[in-house]
Amino acid sequence: MTAPPRAGAFLPWLLAAALVDWIGTGLFLAVSTVFFVRVVGLSTVAVGSGLTVAALAAMLVALPVGRMADRFGPRRVLVSVELIQGVATAAYLTAHGWLPFLVVTFVVAVTQQAAPPLIQALVGEVTAADRRTKVLALHRTVINVGISVGSLSAGLVLGLGLPHAFQLLLIADAVAFVVAAVILALLPIRTQVIRRPSGDRWAALRDTRLQAWTAYDAVLSLWQPILNVAFPIWLATRTDAPLSLVGVLYTVHGVIAIALQYPAGKLATTPTRAVRGYAGAALCLAAASVGFAMASESSATFTVVALTVSVVLLTLGEITQVGSAWTVSFTIAPPDRRNAYLAAFSLGRAFSRAVGPLLMTGAVLALGRAGWLTLAAVFALAAVAPLLVTKQSALTSSTANEHDDTARAHERR
Known about the structure:
CATH architecture of the largest domain: Up-down Bundle
Radius of gyration: 21 Å
Order of helices and strands: HHHHHHHHHHHHHHHHH
Low-confidence stretches: 1-5, 398-413
Strand content: under 5%
Distance between the termini: 15 Å
Number of helices: 17
């Protein structure tokens, strides 16, 4: 039998691709909304609606892309996705009007939705089962570094007052995707023989265990709209904390995520640990929600402390949830349909990103403290749910697949 290659052989290449990709993403992400309004000439409502519609529509393409990866291998599809994202990003330069903007944004959203499960599947094919979560945690750490460097660089470029600075940043982002695609194409791994997945092509959509864990992961993935939408709006409108604290706490979040993602990933390398990690993440998110509620209408010092503690807890919940999600999704995915299952599982997080902002603004923030406390109660129930309703065999019944998959022979070219 042929064991999976050692992680050391391909890991530097994978991390280099991630660093280039996400430096480029950070360059444009930091200025994208302003670019769409000032350069493209769209209203903020048009930008928001376009991003939401594109994100929801992109979810429909996730499973077919996963099936394609099961057919041709994740590396080939991932390289294609990176190239398409580069071309689509550059196409923003010609997107004048809402409809062209929507079309380009849809293509970009498809690639953004497709890439994470493809990378996860690629790591799954070339890494032993007990090292996958560690490798993915290291990969995500590099992503956080890249996006931080890109965002900082974008600010410096804008500060120089260069003509066409927005366009230059966009082009740099597009080039970064192409460079990342080249690096991924050069990964020192042998290509798997093309195979046709066995069984029902839509089995992932009918797998009740997958559906349950996808929905559960969607709930815990609400940390994203909390961090990016609810927290800054709450601070600005319902507390007496200085607005500059938003940037400070985003920096705190980034530092913690970079420093602790890899150690946290090492704690979720088995299904049992992943379930416990999910529960711990839910408790952190519940406590953070209570902290945000307490930050309203209190003394200035207490408000700053409450917001700081809440962001720290939110970050701990994030890094724990992500590590647990990797292990759980690997465990429930049959080896011959892994890409399709991982793509389907990623829909939970995508759904939270798409509808989470509306949930935060229309429910949580609209209800004030009661909204935060209700959200805390939801997370508290989520902490108990996997420990009560998931028998050990319910998640680990396919653990044998994981160990067999580590040692099984992949036919290679």
